[in-house]
Fold each of these.
Amino acid sequence: MKRILLLLIAITVVSGCATTPSKPEPVASSATKESAQPAIPDKPVDVWLMPLEGFPPEYARELEKKFSAELCLNVRATVHAGRTPKMFGPSKQMLGERVRDELKVPLQRLYDVTPKTIFVVLTRDDLNSEDGGTRFLFAMHFPPERLSVVSMARLSDSFFGKKDTPEVTKLRLYKMVKKAIGTQYYAYPRSTDLKSVMYSPVMSLDDLDAVGTDF
């Protein structure tokens, strides 16, 4: 009887080892699954905003968000780009043509660019052209390079010794950048309709304040 009992115990032990569940196959983690999926390419950038050193970074971010939502375009702002002495003329004004030439390489290095991508350079410096045909310019546009340079120097009332009004300055800047997008991205012509943001010529802040905000 004792031998029979020992035999039954031995069979039970062997049987238990044989029926031990095998180790389950490892389950791929979510990170592994995601890396195994084909990468989704980034959406091409429609408008690159490039603020130059000294331009308020919060203004660039606001423009990025506002135009992305309003125009349903992929608008991105770069980190600040440097200003070089070559960008300025003898009068200490920034010259649009020199800005274009100095930023040629940095603009070419931006990613997700297509043949339709445009570039809007934002500066706080007073702006003019090489020929100096006017005392200053709010903006300059270079269609071959799909590039605009927009200055906020004279958009601020504080430039003229008046009380600073940031919200008014932001609205003026918004109009000038939107006009640049209309000119470069949509190829809209200049307009004589004061209700259009494409109105031209804008020779003073009074003109700019009277201009509408729609294309």
Note: The longest strand covers residues 118-123.
Amino acid sequence: MLSRVANSLYWLARYLERAENTARLVNVNSHLLLDLPSSVKLGWEPIIDILSFRDTFYELHENADEESVIDFMIVDKKHSGSIVSSLSAARENARTVKEIIPREAWEQINELYHYVTENSAIAFKRRTRYQYLSKIILANQTITGLLAGTMTHDEAYLFMRIGRNLERADMTTRIIDVRSASLLPELENELPAFRNIQWMGVLKSMTAYQMYRREVRVRINRKDVLEFLLLESRFPRSLIHAIEQVERSLSELPHNKVAVEKTRILRNYLLNAKPAVLEQEKLHDFIDDIQLGLIEVNEKVSDTYF
């Protein structure tokens, strides 16, 4: 396989996953708007911080109000991390490897791009935003299912699976980090009854709420949610599952020694750290270390294969 083709497949999967996870991220706040009492003012700035785009955002917008953040995260073509930009990049990568991926997958990617760009106005209305974002998430799930069910699981598929799971691992850590630290600081002191409501939002944003309730039958709490989202290897959106998928996929590729070793070190660090019992500041440092580890894995994959 040409390194150019492998690179396009890898980034096709990453951009699709990025678009889906950004939709999930905005949906966190959409869920909380429904769950919180009207007296609580919801902050939108932490969403920018999750993706580390604060400087870019304030170059384009004056205030981090709801409309500005929605524009920046979903439809702003000048912002490379927006849903529209991610899907545009995914579509371009898919176009260059149309002979590698199933035709139906290409058609779904193309259709999703046109849906998002042609219906962007409804993202600004609270009443229709959830439906718009859910369509993006469901379409991405359909594409992932098509690829898994109709594409030969050869080297091409392995590069896509590596890209998808690295992106998923990165976003999972980002959501947990900022969501736990700064979304609703006023709840801790003023509304104890809503102390853990942000964790319910996290679970819902990752479509993890029902699976969490099956596994953990007590009241939602920070420690159990962290353990589930970071360490439950049977849940496909957990951090440990994503890292293990990357390691398993790399192990099937040639010249994999350095990349596999980096991934294995990261997996062992996660398993030995017991992150669920860490205080917030130490949890933040731990997640920083995980994200640096994911960057190193990405660099080793790029150096080796692209």
Note: The CA atoms of residues 62 and 68 lie 8 Å apart.
Amino acid sequence: MKITISNPIFSVEFQKTTKLIDLNELDRKMQEFFLDESYSNDVEEYFIGLICVSPGFDEFFKPKRPKYYDDKILKARGLPGPEDIHLKNRFSCELKLDYATFFPSNKEEGYNIIAKSLLEFLETLKYPSVIKTFDKKKFNEDMKNFFIQVGCIF
């Protein structure tokens, strides 16, 4: 299964940190870990969006509801690249990270914050009924094992 932490939404002050580099490294490791895994024939791509903005902008950036695309073509006219984007068996979700703890954290602390937040989020996540075959329990266990493998402590 292709899994990725896609297009994180961070405040501008994150540009002065290594958070995006750290997140790209975590994303690469996550993709490698889950590459040969499958939890349902209905989910081939799993996108996780992270939001972490300073308190003054918090009200403008709310996580979107989880979405599942069975087979959809989005028209992207006027944008560089392919005109149509084909989404097939793609699930996406977003969660917020606590700015006060995540922003000042170092790489290891940041990974721990992401791990704890994501695992709590996944535990309560309600998947759309069209993908009821998705093995949530195994996916959550594998996600926990992934974070343990990269050195996170719970």
Note: The helical segments are 19-34, 99-102, 107-124, 136-149.
Amino acid sequence: MKTITLKIDDRINEQFINLLKGFSENELRILEESEYISDDDYLRSLSGMVESIKEARKEPIDNGVTLNQLDW
């Protein structure tokens, strides 16, 4: 099975969900339904995130590391 994420216009949401419900659970399963929120709005909704980013901006660039220095 594949998983996809869609952003559906409110005007067609009900019809689209009804279309999906026409499939059996073996063919298609709705895993989650939620309101769209932009990445920016999501990050701003996290407690302390804006302050953390502002503080990080004050750090000298020399304190950073390159991607090949990360231990992933």
Note: Residues 13-21 form the longest helix (9 residues).
